[in-house]
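User: I'm writing a short report section on ligand binding and want a predicted complex to refer to. Could you take this sequence and calcium ion and write out the structure as tokens? A short remark afterwards would be nice.
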Amino acid sequence: MEGGDHLAHERKKAQFDVEAMKIVWAGSRHAFEVSDRISKLVASDPAFRKDNRPMLSRKELFKNTLRKAAYAWKRIIELRLSEEEASKLRFYVDEPAFTDLHWGMFLPAIKGQGTEEQQQKWLPLAYKMQIIGCYAQTELGHGSNSSKWWPGGLGKISTHAVVYARLITDGQDHGVHGFIVQLRSLDDHSPLPGITVGDIGMKFGNGAYNTMDNGVLRFDHVRIPRDQMLMKVSQVSREGKYSQSNVPRQLVYGTMVFVRQTIVADASCALSRAVCIATRYSAVRRQFGSQNGGPETQVIDYKTQQSRLFPLLASAYAFRFVGEWLKWLYTDVTQRLQANDFSTLPEAHACTAGLKSLTTAATADGIEECRKLCGGHGYLCSSGLPELFAVYVPACTYEGDNTVLLLQVARFLVKTLSQLGSGKQPVGTTAYMGQVEHLMQCHCNVQKAEDWLKPAVILEAFEARSARMSVACAKNLSKFTNPEEGFAELSGDLVEAAIAHCQLIIVSKFIEKLQQDIPGKGVKQQLGVLCNIYALFLLHKHQGDFLSTGCITPKQAYLANEQLRALYSQARPNAIALVDAFNYTDHYLGSILGCYDGNVYPKLYEAAWKDPLNDSVVPDGYREYIWPMLKQQLRTARL
Amino acid sequence: MEGGDHLAHERKKAQFDVEAMKIVWAGSRHAFEVSDRISKLVASDPAFRKDNRPMLSRKELFKNTLRKAAYAWKRIIELRLSEEEASKLRFYVDEPAFTDLHWGMFLPAIKGQGTEEQQQKWLPLAYKMQIIGCYAQTELGHGSNSSKWWPGGLGKISTHAVVYARLITDGQDHGVHGFIVQLRSLDDHSPLPGITVGDIGMKFGNGAYNTMDNGVLRFDHVRIPRDQMLMKVSQVSREGKYSQSNVPRQLVYGTMVFVRQTIVADASCALSRAVCIATRYSAVRRQFGSQNGGPETQVIDYKTQQSRLFPLLASAYAFRFVGEWLKWLYTDVTQRLQANDFSTLPEAHACTAGLKSLTTAATADGIEECRKLCGGHGYLCSSGLPELFAVYVPACTYEGDNTVLLLQVARFLVKTLSQLGSGKQPVGTTAYMGQVEHLMQCHCNVQKAEDWLKPAVILEAFEARSARMSVACAKNLSKFTNPEEGFAELSGDLVEAAIAHCQLIIVSKFIEKLQQDIPGKGVKQQLGVLCNIYALFLLHKHQGDFLSTGCITPKQAYLANEQLRALYSQARPNAIALVDAFNYTDHYLGSILGCYDGNVYPKLYEAAWKDPLNDSVVPDGYREYIWPMLKQQLRTARL
Ligand SMILES: Cc1cc2nc3c(=O)[nH]c(=O)nc-3n(C[C@H](O)[C@H](O)[C@H](O)COP(=O)(O)OP(=O)(O)OC[C@H]3O[C@@H](n4cnc5c(N)ncnc54)[C@H](O)[C@@H]3O)c2cc1C
Ligand SMILES: Cc1cc2nc3c(=O)[nH]c(=O)nc-3n(C[C@H](O)[C@H](O)[C@H](O)COP(=O)(O)OP(=O)(O)OC[C@H]3O[C@@H](n4cnc5c(N)ncnc54)[C@H](O)[C@@H]3O)c2cc1C
Ligand SMILES: [Ca+2]
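Assistant: Sure. The structure tokens for the complex follow:
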């Protein structure tokens, strides 16, 4: 039993074409081919080894990250990788680094907010990494005397930063603007005069985000040349006069839509990784039933295990597809902006804000649930799950705190409703609000469990729930004389309405996906099962919303739950193949519990002995501390 | 602004006597006095410093733990501390160590399962720490050839273990029994012949549980002397004959009730710590409202912040009181057992299993929510929250996986219901099931929001919900011809019914607490607010249960939520004082964000510079990796 594929019997059970599903997951044959090739390239190169991360000290860890970043860049050049391939390579190296901020924030900020001239000056330097940049917005505390605090890449590596600061000319405060500031000498890396910069210290977890030099920055009388203010939207003239350009301010929102769309895509990656680990291990793990004496059961066959695991599997697919759609949305918005059409921007902005919040929150919780689904062994670093959680979870906070984002969505929903009266038609993901009269009084006509499999039934229930929750908020808000006070007082309900709206978006995009042509034996059918699991799981979890708004009856809620159980049974034989479809290498997964061949126990046993504590049989400290204790000699021991 | 108490204005707002609340929280004046004295003793002794934990390598960390354990033992002897004081001292040292298992599992196992003779032989050695023991039950995998895996203290320190293994005599399998096994030489600590033992490797987080040597153990032809089988309940004679003693087997359950009761008490400690940090920091932190330009608001004044934070504050108190009650329950059960009265044991067993599951799950999630409530800064190790989460979260898994425990509770509930017909009166926390007929048809008569403040109203709603969910499960189970199959199929619903039952227990014990005489100005009133917050928060969160079973109407659910909002406003001015009442030292809290004086920012700034990465301004690795990158020299660089 030592060698071979311990999950072969599971793989044989699959009722669909896994290879075809891989293409669907990747988005296209081309995307699959690139991912597959680059992930194998990384996995097969010992320079990208990462299993030792939890054991390294902060300094060793960080130095190792610098090595990997330099080596990755070297390979990118040597292999003449395209931009797409290069970014995939960084993705599969799977280690947060200053390069994330350089490529993901510094460059886009200059592209988005710099003038043509500024772009021509700075972008070529940045593209060749002759300068390294970060994005410095957040501050340590409140008040004017604060430091920049948190920017990734700032602490130890960046030579430059886009710094956000108040612009004051002639004693007038023009608000926050972006500036390109050089921080360190390009010769010896020492901070320039007047600049104090350092790392802000250890963060959550082993390895994890500690590979990143999140930094602190203080200025003491530092002069920033006028032409290093990012001046696409507003300018300061040589004479110190402030003015706005004719470029619309809204352009800036386009960048936010872009960044948040990538965060949604990352959510599906992180969640699918955790689900892949928990699913494979649940098929490997056997336990007695709670009535002793029964035969040993694969824990994946317990309904409780399924009811915790399969909704997360379905969520991973749901987030993948909504992420794909957001990519399209971003392209669409960009094209419209270029044509001076701003009509869809607020909706797109609210939609990406909400989806960022929802998918990151569900992913963070989902990773931790997957860890618990692995029982005790999930608590070991070698399971990969602790580090995956620790490295992922700040996504709930950065690029907009999740609660603050939901409040923005709620504000948009209330506004959309209030404009219905004046005849303004809601667009995009809020289009259903146009049918608000119907949605306020429609009745769900589910009679038997299978009725819940109909997309139209699901969609109407979710639309009605969301519309009714938003309308209830709007009604309650109208009772306040001061709208802002009302908004503050009711913000708890408003957040719940925003969540209902965003869940509807994800469900409806999954349903839309299924209306497309999807090739491959059984592929579409499996996705249908997952879509229904996702929707009915949400419906069960948020039963209270659906019942209190009268969208469904208790009997219908009961039938939905019954149908959900039946769906779990349908998903069960396909579970392993559904996670194989992610096409993750063992290197990328970084988990003994999730290894492809399922040969978990010998690998766990072997890995244990590599812990530094096992360097010696008798541990360091035995003579000084344990021996005197056992021998009752502590009184005289020096401790 | 640098010195002084930055939270003084908050402390002045309190509407109750904080000193009196401290006594309530501690349980008695005596308990308060001991905790206060010992926690200050630990806090003031630099030998117990712990803020460097995240930066230590595994070996340094572990050696440091050995030192602290020996030093603590030395102090316990020098100061002639009582057992109560000694255990408090270990508690406030706040670092998992082999001693936890020695005192918490090894000793109780011998006391619970050893004969008088065995106790006389082993206990004195263990009490003086002339031997160090652990508790070895869990195995790596399934199958007969597996290793012991996970026991704390086993990896590097224990000289002895209580090992659970199958007893086979004359070819007959008598099931799992406990054996005292010596693992290491008492002279030089080397493992005895045939014994392989080591550490299982790094676990979740920085510092955290990595101070513990969870271990792996293999035996190769090791003989265990017959008299080292724990023989209180069953014996093997010199001639190899197996027999049962007249001591009832159920005694063993008493030990489980004991251990799980301590876990519930620990839950309230861990959750209150996190809540204390998040509450103080929420009063320190200021942010602009989402509509820019408004004045800076303390984030604790946002309703969304309150609706996430205050239920956790209320839960900490709720868990404290239910834990106190469980301590009483354990004493009661023990006395009954000694009088050969087993009538309450199954109920006590189910109740502790369920409460262990509920409180540990809510605490783990609650700590993480508190971390998020602190925004980005909660992600720093110096906030204390990452380590608190990582060290706490395995409580959801050890001493019974939480899902498995809930299934046991559900089994007990179904059994209780089925015995109603035969006239068996349910006892203790299931007594309400005796009124099942009333509970199936009663109507909640809440008409206005304040009606939800009445304990009787809350209690009936929670009882009706729990009874109806259990009855629905029982009805659905009866449709299956094979009851075990039904139980497996419906286990998702059964778990939900078990949760409803356990939430009722916590709510009802909080209400019972309030029926006692509680001295101190305003103390009882504040606890009343917290009790109502706890109950109405649960009601809102699980609205779906209450509505689908028809226990309340949508209108009543709405009124409950309205009342909840009003309660948050009442709690707000008392929030800081309510966490001050935990009486935690800054040492025990281990969090810059939670420090008593609220002077957060200068401390964060100062702490950052202690990170090893800041040892040098230009980081290690710059010359090898960053310089060649900036200078386009990578092609020739050795990486
Ligand atoms: C790993 C990591 C990487 C980061 N990288 C960068 C970077 O590269 N560059 C950079 O500039 N920054 C970076 N940040 C900072 C990040 O953008 C901020 O942490 C984030 O914007 C949240 O702000 P905050 O930390 O001030 O939280 P706070 O705003 O202080 O949040 C604290 C609490 O207050 C609540 N709250 C705040 N405002 C409101 C409101 N208006 N209404 C209701 N509730 C409110 C929040 O919900 C939260 O519960 C990073 C942070 C992390 C953790
Ligand atoms: C930090 C830590 C310290 C520990 N210390 C000790 C120690 O000192 N001594 C010791 O002996 N052990 C110790 N343990 C082991 C611990 O007791 C086990 O991890 C725990 O009992 C859970 O068992 P498991 O790991 O086998 O999980 P599993 O049982 O494999 O759980 C995996 C999944 O299967 C599900 N599952 C399992 N059985 C069923 C069922 N019957 N019905 C439905 N679902 C089921 C679970 O819900 C879970 O989702 C420790 C563990 C940890 C993490
Ligand atoms: Ca570490």
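A remark for your report: The pocket of calcium ion (ligand 3) is lined by residues A 206; B 206 (CB under 6 Å). The longest strand of chain B covers residues 172-182.
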